[in-house]
Amino acid sequence: MKILVGVKRVIDYNVKVRVKSDNSDVDLSNTKMAINPFCEIAVEEAIRLKEAGIADEVIAVSVGSNASQEQLRTALALGADRAILVETEGVVEPLNVAKALAQIMAQESPDLVILGKQSIDSDNNQVGQMLAALTQRPQGTFASKVSIADGSVSVTREIDGGLRTVKLTMPAIVTTDLRLNEPRFAKLPDIMKAKKKPLDTTTFEQLGVTPKQHIQLDKVEAPAARQGGIKVSSVDELIEKLKDEAKVI
Amino acid sequence: MTTLLIAEHNGLELTSATLSALTAARQLGGDITLLVAGDNAQAAAEQGAQCDGVSKVLLAQDASLAHDLAENLSALIMAIADGFSHIMAPANSVSKETLPRVAALLDVGQLSDITAVLSDDQFQRPIYAGNAIATVTSHDAVKVITVRAAAFDKASLSRGTASIETVEVPADTALSSWVNDELTESERPELTAAERIVSGGRGVGSGENFALLEALADKLGAAVGASRAAVDSGFVANDMQVGQTGKIVAPDLYMAFGISGAIQHLAGMKDSKVIVAVNKDEDAPIFQVADYGLVADLFDVLPELTEKL
Ligand SMILES: Cc1cc2nc3c(=O)[nH]c(=O)nc-3n(C[C@H](O)[C@H](O)[C@H](O)COP(=O)(O)OP(=O)(O)OC[C@H]3O[C@@H](n4cnc5c(N)ncnc54)[C@H](O)[C@@H]3O)c2cc1C
Ligand SMILES: Nc1ncnc2c1ncn2[C@@H]1O[C@H](COP(=O)(O)O)[C@@H](O)[C@H]1O
After folding, report:
1. Complex ipTM more than 0.85, yes or no
2. Ligand 1 test: best mutation among B192, B213, B249, B259, most atoms within 8 Å of CB?
């Protein structure tokens, strides 16, 4: 079985972004970049399926600038077998990413595609669902458990009211939630070995996809800052403030 | 301009998130058609027909719609999408999984989680866990939008008299099938609809200790929420997670116990009207957003607070 995983290069989740002074975007110069945390979970799940003997090849794909090679190398160090970079400049909208991934699916015929549920930069939560629609395949979004048996995949999904398990025909698209697994760290020898693993580069043009602009970014602002509050010194004072000042109890 | 609003409901009534999304839809100005889909949704459709601003209700009932499978629900929406300029839904787990499918089938982009309607094609939405607010313009003929309920007031139910029309449901796609649900049973208010929330983090220490929070919540008529650390540690169920990748809430009162205040948590609750934080670390970042902070041990504070209220 072949698994395709999506790997997006994003700001490190520990870094608090700043808005540029001209409000054109956020300032990413000199910020620490990383694999989107949900994609790390996707890579981990694929590798575990390989270790369990269920999968025999894991391919990591990223759509982005040349710098995304760094994140693909990390995925290779973690255990992916090879990587594909769809090289492009600037921000890529989810539908364009999904179209590129759909072409790669057509070329590679994976049995399972695992993506993150959400990019922590754009907070879109779209690509997996869009890819499933474009390829007319089923989806198991926000997965906290994935199991494969008899040519189908069972996905336990985190939904608003709790958990829901669905069974998908394959090939299927799965998107990861936080509880699916705890990703490992890459070990130094594996990082060295990953340098020799194949990393192919392609482009939208080579894939026959013309990216379109659907949504234009007009401006970016900092959110309204919250007024700093006060410290109270006792439970009695807290109750008094909530009753008489805030009037919420 | 005509908007198709996808209702979220429990068969009997619309959720409060749907009423908030309706407010956003009304700000667009055009006619609003409400789609109520499910296996047994007549009562919810009747309630929808009474909502201020809804001019028509489409009722789609079929066994294939019982468990909100995105493959089937998106096929239904595609079957009726023709002629609508906007397709909207509250940003709940059902539409988060379904609407991007619809957008892709229409070959348009999706605007996720909007917090303001500036015009019929310009909107605001938070990015980077709410650390930046983007103003965006859609260039697509059809705008597919999910609405952050916490950012809009609920539309009122009046004695509106929209007509209810039954629509044909496309055949089951059979791409996926429902196996089972493990839903969290609770007598307390639902997190995203609650006016008060009592939330606990890693500092609460265990699932058993959450009983202390529940006792306070019961006194206040509040819902109980949690940080990711509390959910990951198995103290409470996943659907209680508040934050960037959990539920977004904006109650009148949010009380955080033993939560440090990571940006991902703040993203889900910093628009609450009044925030209270109880933490034994006086430098915890949660205090930067708290209206009232109390540096103390939560195990001392909770019983005393519950008793004195
Ligand atoms: C991709 C991604 C998505 C995420 N999404 C979310 C999300 O949606 N929601 C979310 O919450 N987090 C999310 N996180 C996790 C987030 O970064 C933090 O790790 C998490 O919020 C920490 O939870 P916590 O505050 O309960 O735990 P900690 O940070 O460990 O804080 C525990 C706090 O409890 C205090 N404490 C301990 N004992 C006591 C006591 N007896 N009395 C009083 N105070 C006490 C401590 O001083 C400390 O401040 C996400 C992270 C990633 C990477
Ligand atoms: N540029 C990209 N390259 C590779 N995968 C991506 C890219 N953008 C999004 N994805 C995948 O889709 C998931 C959801 O992203 P989004 O819909 O942007 O929130 C991510 O976690 C990735 O797995």
Report:
1. yes
2. B259
